């Protein structure tokens, strides 16, 4: 038990956290404080079933979906930055002045800094620089969380946001590019349109050489599925990844990959699944 340790996962939309739920649950099981920060409520996401939400209610519905999904893995602390979903690149929603991508950077970073200083995480986790697949909000949360990581411990920055606190490490979490290519090849073989078809696979996810940690969580796959299933509005049966056979889906969800990008260096010979090694 290491109750003094804490993890804060910073994402853009409800369900973005699903890439790290195995690690987050493991931290909960080890007695750590775990939180999820979400920049928006996913107001312009899909609605898989019209009975679940309307465009006007989707944000409120997705907030509750995230809180339930977090509770499944034992996470009770959920924070929102209160920006609006910016939509996919090139969509009309990009122009909404309330959209996350249109927030003044200093303001957005300050809001993240305030949560870091209040929650005091040992580790920060967010998307890699590609945002996984290039969503504008994913790119923004990566950029601004990275800046907040460096600012939070500096007493000269955002003095109104609470006493300085410096997290020990910043990690980017993502799918490896090799896995993205494997998934795309499988979908192509099945004649299923790939969700990655409009993005250069060599510009997505994490390159293998950047991955510092591989966390195997096969024992939590069923729990991760239950957490994912709370995001009901986003679970279209026609989605490409819904076509994965059970064995491949379980293999995909059994592994989580991380890249240490800032903070305390790892000790020589650190285990590949210990993001806290040496702290």
What topology emerges from the helices and strands here?
Blueprint: E1 6-11, H1 21-29, E2 33-40, H2 58-72, E3 77-83, H3 105-119, E4 123-127, H4 131-134, H5 136-151, E5 169-174, H6 177-189, E6 213-216, H7 221-229, H8 246-253, E7 255-263
List keywords for this structure.
279 residues, alpha/beta, Rossmann fold, 8 helices, 7 strands, 16% strand
Write structural notes for this entry.
- There is one protein chain.
- With about 280 residues, the protein is α/β, with parallel strands linked by helices.
- The protein has one domain: Rossmann fold (3-Layer(aba) Sandwich), CATH 3.40.50.10320.
- It has helices at about 20-30, 60-70, 105-120, 130-135, 135-150, 175-190, 220-230, 245-255; strands at about 5-10, 35-40, 75-85, 125, 170-175, 215, 255-265.
- The chain has a 7-stranded mixed sheet, with helices on both faces.
- α2 (about 60-70) links the parallel β2 and β3 (about 75-85).
- The relative contact order is 0.17.
- The model has no long low-confidence stretch (mean pLDDT about 95).
> How would you describe the oligomerization state of the chains in this entry?
single chain
Shape descriptor: globular
Radius of gyration: 18 Å
Report the end-to-end length measured between terminal Cα atoms: 14 Å
Count of discrete alpha- or pi-helical segments spanning 4 or more residues: 8
CATH class annotation: Alpha Beta
